[in-house]
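Typical record was shown:
=====
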Amino acid sequence: MVLIGGVAVIHNRIAFRGIIFCLSFFVSIMPFAVYGAESSKSGVPILQKVAQEYYLKGLEYADRNEFKLAIEQYDQAIALYPKSADYYLKRGEALFKNQQIEQSIKDFTKAIEVQPGKYKSYLVRARSYIASNQKDKAIADMEQSVKICTDGIKRSPKDTEKYIDRGQAYMMLEDYENAANDFSKVLELDSRSDAAFVRRGIAYAMEHEYDLAIIDFNKAITLNSNNDEAFLIRAEIYFLGGNLERAIQDYSEVIRLKPANSVAYAQRGYVYMMSGQAEKAREDSRKAESIDKKIADSAGWMMAIGSISYSHITGNVPEKSDFDAFLLRAIMAYFSAGPNAEIKYEFLRKGPDQVGVSPPDYYLWVEINDNNKRQTGAMRVTAIDKKGFVIPDFLTKDTIEKDFSEVYKIFPLTVCLRIANKIKKEHRI
């Protein structure tokens, strides 16, 4: 008898995760922006006011990707007023973007010392730890960010901002199911929050629940017809689903609402090119470059790479009707399992992980019991030519517990976190 548990069925319309993720990242970090770290009310010392002026100037430079100049302004702000966590946080972000990773870690650490309850500092420090290959510290910071948000919710269970914060933390952790649950809680408390609909829609899209995502974006637009974020992400989903006309319409709405949005021009131009409208594609490309060439080039590159990745996914992942049977067959062959083996597995990340031109990977937690011989562990599975799967890596639970560093060599960091949680959960049981 064969038991299959927790299987996420992947259909033929698999999205390019990178496009959605990049856009969702920009949307999800918007609450992180700080436009006034300290009060300018009467009575505030003059040095603090001057420090705020330097800080705001630093934000302007950072917005223009002039990070060295931004760092210089933040240096002045901190020298005058070293008690603001936001000053360290923003200088750390500029240092990170300027490839000064170790210095960014020091600033994020200082921000945490100044204001320990600021969950965003832990998230951005985790990113720096990832870049410096300190993955265990990154995981600890990500877990701490969720804990801080959860503690805030316990204190104020009806504060929608607390759920938004934790939902953003879950999004950074790629825990889209819990993120969607938090955004749903926001909507229970405030059914007219178009921002919550947008964020839940992104979480659904990252889980390949495209129909649910479209519904949420539609609701957001109904509540606020000027919500350019909803149009922008919905356009991506239409593009990925092959509905180029609707994608163009939504990009056009973004451009109407935000005429200086170079991303919308660049990506509408790409869709025009894909639909055979070469002249309009060239016009949009020129317009995007005239607004911001760096962003336009990045957006165009992202769409081009997305198309390549999309073709590799659709060219390798089996059809819906074959997916479960092919995956089970590969697992049984890997373990040389007999016909009466019991197999359970669940996805550690829904959907395929596509890197460059390599075949797409899936990550599973597998349990197999064959003739009373039980094995449990984490597995990487690769889809090949729509005909099946191969299994390049499997780490037993015992191996993971003995040396967790082996996990980092195979799995993405957020998958490593889920594996760690799996081990903890089994120990509690």
About this structure: The domain at 34-155 is CATH 1.25.40.10 (Serine Threonine Protein Phosphatase 5, Tetratricopeptide repeat). Strands lie at 342-347, 361-370, 373-384, 388-396. The longest helix spans residues 278-316. The CA atoms of residues 324 and 334 lie 15 Å apart.
